[in-house]
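Long-time lurker. I teach an intro course on protein structure, and each term I like to show students one example going from raw sequence to a predicted 3D structure in token notation. This year I'd like something fresh instead of my usual example. Would anyone be willing to generate the tokens for the chain below so I can use it in lecture? Attribution to the forum is fine with me.
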Amino acid sequence: MRINRKYTDVFFKHLFSTVALFSVLALGAILLFVFAQGTMPFFTSTAPGIRLVAQRIDEMTVNDELYRDHSTFIDIPKKTSVISIRFPSGDAEETLDIFVDDKEKDPEKKLTMTYNGDVKITYPESYVHTVSWSAPIAALEKRIHIIQPEPPYSIWGFLAGLGWHPSRDKVFGILPMIAGTLAASFGAILLGVPIALLCALFMAEFLSPKPASFVRAGVELLAGIPSVVYGFFGLMVIVPFVKNVFKIPSGNTLLSAIIVLALMILPTVITIAETSLRAVPLAVREASLSLGASKMQTAWRVVLPHANSGVIAGVILGISRAVGETMAVILVAGNSPQLTINPLASVRTLTSTIAMEMGYASGRHSEMLFSIGVTLFSIILILNSFILWFRRRMEQEL
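-- Reply from a regular --
Happy to contribute to a lecture. Here you go:
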């Protein structure tokens, strides 16, 4: 019996060690992938050289190389100065010669083209030229899209840029979204944390055990409600309330986001803070009361400072949830990427941008969304580090 128990203990020991190791490795791999994708736009170009995409052209020759039914990118070698394109069109042959000026920094002026036939050249977005050969109807037009590689993006332009225009101009500035995220999160903390602490103190110090258990169960139930439900409640109740009270055209504002986020972090902060308050030894309370302090003074000046470690942990989790919240903010904040300090203006957060645009983003746009994720992770890490430093300082003073 003892031998079997010994082997069982060894087996589970190695099993738990293996599971823990693979969990750490998986988490590390995910973080490494996100950071690699998020930092790539600032150090590499989108492609080694120019790429061509043909539409409704079954057969074409590019620099004397034949392509038939080519449905993917045609990669042109780097530092190619002339790209010669030929393809049949009826009884004739269409020609397009592209001259590349590597010294030109403006992507719209970098290419010079000569051609025959009735050709239309457009510049639908930065780094992309579209050459179209006319046809009786637009759906039959033969087209060649010429895609230039986008150079590494400026980190300063990314973090301090005021514009977010990923499709046409390839501008990726997230300062308004950083400001919107911080404003909504700090506003929710300033509104929600004091209420949560008062509720936790009331439940732990002043409410009798049986009613406290019912209230605690209700708070824990609120913590399990999906965020989209909070967002729907905010859209149906808080947004019209803000609109009617302040007489503004739309209630989808920063203030609405702050109220919804404050409601969402209440259960988390209340639960953790109340658990920490109840864990304070009874002797501490009795010592304070024996010295003549009232129950309120004991709760506020003795019990709460002794439970500051758990309370701060609850605040950290509340901040993390507020900064990382997505669906509820999308529904109530308005999602306008503008830099503003007006609580009645529409804002967009970092998480909202990722959620709304990841479904259709590609190329540099998709990489920049990963960069937003890295920025969000860095913001949460900095905020949590600052709070932990503040907690250690408080503990040293006590």
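Some talking points for your students: The chain has three domains: 2-42, 51-150, 172-397. The longest strand covers residues 92-100.
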